């Protein structure tokens, strides 16, 4: 299969290439990192078109920097360039996509899935937890869940388990009469699953870390671009996380799930303008989504980024998703929030 764009082929060996990059990576430190949103951008454009658009961005911004990043476009003095890039009449509209992960929800979703296998319980806990437990109690729960799931552990091997269940029991005592008491009781009874999970980590290297949002985002990206039975190949900026074994696992997982992923190869972003555009989109979308999540979003920018946002994004906050999430054409409303990730 060959795709064309403006008369120029968007394929290698007959398989379209989708260029990808991310923004907001803090590894497995999702509750104490520098960002509260992870974004994975992707672009399907010919190399020469992408190069031309990157050059136009440089010409419009006129910064002496050798490497342009999203923060150049996010500066207020370059607002017109940012709006041009995202606009329906802009260069990447219809040729780009972004998958978002709300990090706090990702932690809760993964922890509840591990211990209870119940995505609806994760949504309930995430939505009601801050109000029920208070700011300090909710922060304590998030941090304990994050440490429980992290592969890396610099302290006592069983300390993350002890800390998590001590936190859960403390919350249960303090909030026994609330609607969340049942979920807390179920979590408190799931100690054996947590012990088994930590024992598995101690047994040897972990191929797929449960908490890193990059890997599920890549599979979601492949799912989006291969919809309708199309085959695509992903071209990704180099990442330490993307080892040959993990790439092989991603490719095999995609095939088993029925996605048309014809391979994933790593490139140096500075040498591929398509990846540079994906980097711009990821960084821009992450900032816009984070602002919306924290209650000070820019309505114009949120509306501009919305058409790019993946309906399968991992997002738990209702208010911000109502503004960020794709609109169901038949209902005129945001599509339902996603619970558990693919992986």
Q: Which radius of gyration do the C-alpha atoms yield? A: 21 Å
Low-pLDDT residue intervals, each spanning 5 or more residues: 1-9, 329-342
Biggest β-sheet strands, sense, barrel: 6 strands, mixed
> What is the strand tally?
10
Strand % is 5-15%
How far apart the termini lie comes to 28 Å
> From N to C, what is the helix and strand string?
EEEEEHHHEHHHHHHEHEHHHEE
Overall description:
The chain has 343 residues and is α+β, with helices and mostly antiparallel strands. Helix content is 50%, strand content 13%. Strands 3, 4, 5, 6, 7 and 8 form a six-stranded mixed β-sheet that branches. Helix 4 (103-115) crosses helix 5 (119-149) and helix 6 packs antiparallel against helix 7. The longest helix has 31 residues, at 119-149. Residues 1-9 and 329-342 have low confidence and may be disordered.
Which properties best describe this structure?
343 residues, alpha+beta, two-stranded antiparallel ribbon
How is this fold's topology laid out?
Blueprint: E1 4-5, E2 8-9, E3 11-12, E4 15-23, E5 37-43, H1 47-61, H2 70-74, H3 79-86, E6 96-102, H4 103-115, H5 119-149, H6 159-174, H7 181-188, H8 191-203, H9 214-225, E7 232-237, H10 244-257, E8 261-267, H11 273-293, H12 299-305, H13 318-324, E9 327-328, E10 333-334
Parallel strand pairs: 4-7, 7-8
Antiparallel strand pairs: 1-2, 3-4, 4-5, 5-6, 9-10
């Amino acid at each position: 299969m060959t795709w064309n764009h403006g008369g120029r082929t968007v394929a290698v060996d007959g398989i379209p290439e989708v260029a990808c990059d991310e923004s907001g990576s803090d590894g497995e430190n999702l509750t104490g990192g520098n960002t509260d949103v992870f974004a994975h951008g992707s672009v399907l454009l010919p190399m020469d078109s992408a190069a031309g658009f990157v050059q136009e961005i440089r010409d419009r911004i006129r910064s002496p920097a050798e490497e342009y990043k999203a923060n150049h476009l996010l500066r207020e003095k370059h607002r017109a360039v940012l709006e041009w890039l995202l606009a329906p009449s802009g260069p990447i509209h219809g040729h780009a996509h972004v998958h978002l992960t709300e990090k706090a929800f990702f932690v809760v979703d993964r922890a509840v899935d591990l211990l209870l296998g119940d995505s609806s319980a994760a949504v309930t806990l995430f939505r009601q937890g801050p109000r029920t437990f208070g700011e300090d109690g909710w922060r304590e729960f998030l941090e304990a869940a994050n440490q429980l799931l992290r592969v890396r552990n610099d302290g006592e091997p069983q300390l993350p388990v002890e800390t998590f269940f001590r936190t859960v029991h403390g919350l249960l005592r303090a909030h026994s009469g609330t609607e969340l008491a049942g979920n807390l009781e179920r979590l408190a009874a799931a100690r054996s699953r947590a012990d088994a999970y930590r024992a598995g980590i101690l047994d040897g290297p972990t191929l797929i870390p449960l908490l890193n949002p990059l890997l599920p985002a890549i599979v979601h990206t492949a799912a989006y671009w291969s919809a309708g039975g199309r085959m695509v190949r992903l071209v990704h900026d180099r990442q330490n996380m993307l080892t040959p074994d993990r790439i092989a696992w991603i490719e095999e997982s995609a095939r088993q799930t029925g996605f048309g992923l014809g391979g994933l190869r790593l490139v140096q972003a500075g040498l591929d303008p398509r990846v540079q555009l994906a980097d711009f989109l990821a960084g821009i979308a992450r900032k816009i989504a984070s602002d919306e999540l924290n209650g000070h979003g820019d309505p114009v920018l949120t509306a501009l980024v919305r058409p790019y946002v993946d309906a399968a994004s991992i997002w738990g906050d209702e208010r911000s998703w109502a503004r960020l999430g794709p609109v169901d054409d038949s209902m005129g409303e945001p599509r339902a929030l996603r619970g558990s990730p693919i992986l």
